[in-house]
Amino acid sequence: MTRVVRTAGLVLALLWLVVPLAPVLVWAGAERWSFPDLLPRDWGVSGWREAASAGLPLALLRSLVLGLAVAAVATPLGVMTGRVLGWRLTGRPRMVVALLLVPLVLPPFAVAMGLDVVLIRVGLHELVSVVLLLSVVAIPYTAYTSATAFARTSPELEAQARALGATPRQARLRVVLPAVRGSILVAALLAFLVGWSDYVVTLLVGGGQLVTAPVLLGAAASGSGNDATVAAMALATVAPPVVLVTVAALRVRGSGRTAPADRLPEPVPDHERMR
Amino acid sequence: MSARPVSLAATALASALLVSACAAPAADSPATSADRPWDEVLAEAEGQTVDLWMYGGDERGNAYVDDVLAPAAADLGVTVRRVPVADTKDAMRRLLAERAAGEDEGSVDLVWVNGDNFATGQEAGAWLCGWSDDLPNMRYVSDEDPLVSEDFGVPVEGCESPWHKAQFTFAYDSARVTDPPATVAGLLDWAEANPGRFTYPAPPDFTGSVFVRQALYALSGGAEGVPAAFDEGAYDELTPALWERLRDLAPALWREGRTHPRDQVALDRLFADGQVDFTMTYGPATLTELVEDGTFAPTTRVLSVEDGTIGNASFLAIPASSPDQAGAMAVADLALSPEQQVAKADPDVWGQFTVLDIALLEDDAAHAFDRLPDSPVVPAYDELSRNAQPELSSSWVTPLDEGWRREVLGRP
């Protein structure tokens, strides 16, 4: 019974994700498609051609770089915060949690609106400002993801490594980090997605210097008769994250099976041997 | 992702304005360029990169800038970088933030703008002024053209240079509407007689807002009946009849007027799908391509309106915070040149109506305009703009949008 419910739930959840994309998929291959035809009258690639000539490949590349930059800043900071939270190393966890929640509670739009004037006045380069601001948005995700991983991993792991003669640095980098690496990967992925998919901060704080895929897509979607182009852009913007998430999901499951994080003594020799 | 609650955007813009009002340095002294020889401007422009922020939802507009205007600017040694935005308000937000921060090395050099956004920037002192009258190609623009000297009732005062003219246009499918109305009032009657076949975007959407102003003219005896500058007395006197007419019309609209298309894009889709028989646009230039690429039926026609529709012009403005002002002026002047204006007016390129006065052009240039191919859908500008009516001042726009929401939408 529960199995049926679970399968039905999974199917519904998938439908909920996929159904809104169906028209986009069809439009991306359509040349002409008007009401009341159920399917396009002419198929073709004109949408892709238009999208390419509008600068989609470069825009995707910029999105990629922005996503990587945000992940590079937000992941280490998030992991450090997550360690403090997960292992209860602070006497005031509530304050840390409250601080972390601020960027999630305020819409990025409001944050961008308030901070853009400040950032311009400070005189930081626009691109640096964008990466910093998006990292602030991404850190709650990376921190919480790693906090749960640390909570599942005993702090004794670090202590044991130290007892066996590892320096504090070795204990952290070669013992603790590998034990939570699946979650770090997920955290980095979430941070990447924040940078990859942002519109408001990239445009307003970035001062138009960084025309990423979402910026291009937003502009194209604001006009009539661009459906095929918009669909091509949307698909190209959505596909990489979907692929990444799928790959990450598979990897995390795999690594979970090989290295169960909460069986304490084993990981140490395992990873020592791997180096 | 482009859709943001308008009220939020408006609040944000208002707060940005407020901040800039408190923090901005005193408005710059108008144009350093006033009596500068043009050669000097061009020399300074060489090597500059001009960031042109413009609405990016019009593929042919984008293509014109990238493929025609930018290469010509490159010949002058100026690089044009187009920044596509979903709404010109995005550009305004950025430049008001720069203004508030007192930045003089801003990232916006040129904006395609008019109406509300121009007025907002003017109030904040965000535009560079006193330069556009000195552009060499301004000699082809008539001094007496009210569309070019005022932008929605706000005097231009050299703070922006004209780019194109536009005419509010109704389009219909002649296969479905065999007996098209000839006036705006007649269109309202037609809508009442054909339930469910007409609708308009809900103000404060740009297009819906023009439609309401157009209806106000139609019910007030034309533009002469409405004072161009906002006036509380005129509002109280004229609008009750307008709200009553639109309220009465509502049950005959698409979905009984319970809901309205969000914007012109949504209305265009309803029209393309045959759910309604009319669409409307302030950018008739796009109609040619929409028919060509099959979005609209080949039988789409522009409604000829005897009492005339509202016309406006759109402009290129340079923010006071732009670090590449000479380059921006060079591009604005280039965009105003007869060669660029005629290229842009070609329905196969963009189809935007020229701001130049053909009578002031040299013979060759005038002939080039004569030789332009006709669009199969959109009539020539002189036909479309017959009896054209001026825009109301932008101070009318908000009261009318608010009034519509209260009196028409709020009281079914």
TrEMBL record, chain A:
<keyword id="KW-0472">Membrane</keyword>
<keyword id="KW-0997">Cell inner membrane</keyword>
<keyword id="KW-0813">Transport</keyword>
<keyword id="KW-0812">Transmembrane</keyword>
<feature type="transmembrane region" description="Helical">
    <location>
        <begin position="127"/>
        <end position="150"/>
    </location>
</feature>
<feature type="transmembrane region" description="Helical">
    <location>
        <begin position="199"/>
        <end position="221"/>
    </location>
</feature>
<dbReference type="Pfam" id="PF00528">
    <property type="entry name" value="BPD_transp_1"/>
</dbReference>
<dbReference type="InterPro" id="IPR035906">
    <property type="entry name" value="MetI-like_sf"/>
</dbReference>
<feature type="transmembrane region" description="Helical">
    <location>
        <begin position="171"/>
        <end position="193"/>
    </location>
</feature>
<protein>
    <submittedName>
        <fullName>ABC transporter permease subunit</fullName>
    </submittedName>
</protein>
<feature type="domain" description="ABC transmembrane type-1">
    <location>
        <begin position="60"/>
        <end position="248"/>
    </location>
</feature>
<keyword id="KW-1133">Transmembrane helix</keyword>
<feature type="transmembrane region" description="Helical">
    <location>
        <begin position="228"/>
        <end position="250"/>
    </location>
</feature>
<feature type="transmembrane region" description="Helical">
    <location>
        <begin position="95"/>
        <end position="115"/>
    </location>
</feature>
<keyword id="KW-1003">Cell membrane</keyword>
<comment type="similarity">
    <text>Belongs to the binding-protein-dependent transport system permease family.</text>
</comment>
<dbReference type="InterPro" id="IPR000515">
    <property type="entry name" value="MetI-like"/>
</dbReference>
UniProtKB/TrEMBL annotation, chain B:
<dbReference type="InterPro" id="IPR006059">
    <property type="entry name" value="SBP"/>
</dbReference>
<protein>
    <submittedName>
        <fullName>ABC transporter substrate-binding protein</fullName>
    </submittedName>
</protein>
<keyword id="KW-0732">Signal</keyword>
<dbReference type="InterPro" id="IPR027020">
    <property type="entry name" value="YnjB"/>
</dbReference>
<feature type="signal peptide">
    <location>
        <begin position="1"/>
        <end position="26"/>
    </location>
</feature>
<dbReference type="Pfam" id="PF13416">
    <property type="entry name" value="SBP_bac_8"/>
</dbReference>
